[in-house]
Specification:
CATH class: Alpha Beta
CATH architecture: Alpha-Beta Barrel
Distance between the termini: 17 Å
Helix content: 40-55%
Number of helices: 15
Order of helices and strands: HHHHEHEEHHEHHHEHEHEHEHEH
Largest sheet: 7 strands, parallel
Shape: globular
Number of strands: 9
CATH topology: TIM Barrel
Number of domains: 1
Length: 343
């Protein structure tokens, strides 16, 4: 089997010849070849220039020969510039001012017109890889994107002020979230319809801040709208993976979405999830990314532990419980991949 067949097989709970593997944030950050490009080009140049985006997306594939998927180099805040907000990176994220009333003036968002870069990158990557590797697209969930938007970037620790704004005006907040849901669904659909993505992942990094009741009231309907728009525009044939950091208390809600897989973070019990729900949904994860910063031997043993927790039942994709940090060690990555593919 090739990488694409393994990824799609696992997502559809079908037997595969070995555990498929890819890593969140595999394109960029920890790779010296990426840092060289980053020193010469701004973040948005790296995202929006299709040649740079393609080169960065392919860098881990060229270095690590045992990966089963590419994931396009992009960002969850990609929709914001098209809506009229300046987004700057470097020493954190800075976003120009936003008020809840701004939503009334938002444009009718078109991914092809206002944020085509991820889809363009996925399409270009496919011209290099063909069908040998799965091509993955992604977007942020409405809740997480709006946390950054309401906070003006990353200055609001745990998004206390952003959440207070939402709780103080829930009706306006729901309008914002549902509008962002439309945008996210459109953005993901473009990655399939134009880019040719084989699967997509939704990132709801900050959903874990919410209680189950508040998640159901505020965040969940907007994510559901994104999924509905995506499925309407893609004829419901492309798998969705859902990831939310620190969200174990929300998994009963998340399992209600029409998705193929849940990506677990490193604090979730992979074995328990597989035993209880593995006949109904695939699971991705969930190596603690800290093991990529230590010794090769501890990374190898931790990988064996994840594989043992996953068991032999079809429907597991190996991944980290969160993305690579810049200081991840290449030797550890290689050791993890050898362990998965060679035993």
């Amino acid at each position: 089997m090739n990488g694409r067949e393994r990824i799609l097989g696992a997502l559809n709970l079908q037997p595969v010849d070995q555990t498929p593997v890819w890593f969140m944030r595999q394109a960029g950050r920890h790779l010296p070849e990426y840092r060289k490009i980053a020193a010469e080009h701004s973040f948005w140049e790296r995202c929006q220039d299709v040649d740079l985006c393609t080169e960065i997306t392919l860098q881990p594939i060229n270095r690590y020969k045992k990966l089963d998927a590419t994931i396009v180099f992009s960002d969850i805040l990609t929709p914001l510039p098209g809506l009229g907000y300046d987004v700057e990176y470097g020493g954190g994220i800075r976003i120009s001012d936003f008020e809840l009333s701004d939503v009334d003036d938002w444009i009718s968002f078109s991914a092809r017109k206002h944020a085509p870069w991820a889809a363009d990158g996925i399409k270009a990557v496919g011209e290099h890889t063909g069908d040998s590797l799965a091509r993955l697209g992604f977007a942020g969930c409405p809740w997480t994107i709006c946390m950054y938007l309401l906070s003006g970037g990353t200055g609001d620790k745990d998004f206390h002020n952003a959440r207070a704004k939402i709780f103080s005006d829930p009706e306006s907040a729901k309008r914002m979230l549902m509008s962002m849901g439309e945008i996210v669904g459109e953005l993901l659909a473009d990655q399939v319809n134009h880019g040719g993505a084989d699967a997509v992942q939704l990132f709801d990094t900050w959903a874990g801040l919410l209680s189950p009741a508040t998640y159901r009231e505020l965040a969940m309907p907007a994510t559901q709208r994104a999924i509905d728009v995506f499925k309407e525009k893609t004829q419901d044939h492309v798998p969705i993976i859902h990831y939310a950091k620190g969200s174990g208390h929300l998994h009963s809600c998340i399992r209600e979405f029409d998705i193929k897989a849940i990506s677990l973070d490193w604090r979730d019990d992979l074995s328990q999830n597989r035993q209880q729900f593995g006949n109904d949904i695939a699971f991705q994860g969930n190596l603690d990314p800290s093991y990529m910063h230590g010794s090769v031997e501890t990374a190898k043993q931790a990988t064996l532990d994840v594989l043992a927790a996953a068991g032999e039942k079809p429907g597991h994709i190996f991944n980290l419980g969160h993305g690579f940090a810049p200081s991840a060690k290449i030797d550890c990555v290689e050791a993890v991949l050898r362990t998965i593919t060679e035993g």
